[in-house]
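Holo prediction — fe (ii) ion.
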Amino acid sequence: MSTMLTAQSGGGEGRAEFYSRLRLRGLAPLWEVLSSLVTPVPRTPAQAVKWSFSAIRPLLMEAGDLITAAEAERRVLILENPALPGESRITSTLYAGLQLILPGEIAPAHRHTQNALRFIMDGEGAFTALDGERTYMHKYDLILTPGGRWHDHGNESDGPMIWLDGLDIPLVRVLDASFAEHRDDRGACPTTRPPGDATWRWGRNLRPSRHADSTPGNPLFSYPFADWRTTLQTLRASEDPHPHDAYLMEFANPLDGGPVLTTISAFARLTPAGFATRPMRSAVGSPLTAAGVLGVYGTTTVCTGRPNTSRGSTPGNAASSPWRRDQGALLGHCPCALPRVLRPHESWRRGFGKSYAECCAGRDALARELTPSTA
Ligand SMILES: [Fe+2]
């Protein structure tokens, strides 16, 4: 096999002439490219990059003066990997951007095959609605909008709201599986359930006994910082940090214990001040968002898209980062691409093809069946 992986370039005019005749027939010699297709170790064009939130925030606010949310539809500054210019990718398989929504603004309801998560960076009290249920967002909450689900955002607070969007856009693009749809009125979804409904059904180590598996994706879409911070602090109080991970927890889908989204997994990490994790090698592309626990002096987003040897829980996060020096503890949120599960076509088959009214009608029927007292 190893000899097959060696490119057989060259070969003189006879071989070149043969190749040109192949091209005319839509053919190509595998032996010329095999070594780049089947590599002994992963290769990626993405680079490890660090963005400073404190540097981006003023630019985002400037964008807020220059363009309305209605004009932009999504007022987002893309975190684009410098090694992948013009491709709207933070790693080979993930998109990330920082979105600003100002007081009084809404982001109209829509749905798409791409899975999305958002990590709240700044502000309090704006909402994300998923299939007509609002969750009010607070700093460092993890919010999901699985592929195929209707979602919209609104800011009823008196301050700006900024969050990190993470989507599997590049992965879906590779599969030519992008579908998107907007409501005809370009407005928000009507409210069909009270805020917190999904959390009470799915986020308390319980699940509805008659759950009908008709909605694509994770039924739980809010993972509040207040909850997972306590988990990590409890872990820290009871055991030593792992040499490679420090204290690392994976957010779980309550349906099956798997990743929160079919193509993306998300993690929360606590790295004690002064603790350095050992270098490790991974093929996972990981946008990391670091935030302080004991008060935030600055936040930093770090991307390590290259399978490499890296030191620390936030690779590339230099010691010059002010929060690292100032914080007593750090929490990181790490959405990581997982290649083992990928079903955007499944999301489309199950979720698309129905109108919003049909989706909500089914949901209302399920709600009545599960909670007869509210019917
Ligand atoms: Fe969206």
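READOUT: The chain is about 25% helix and 25% strand.
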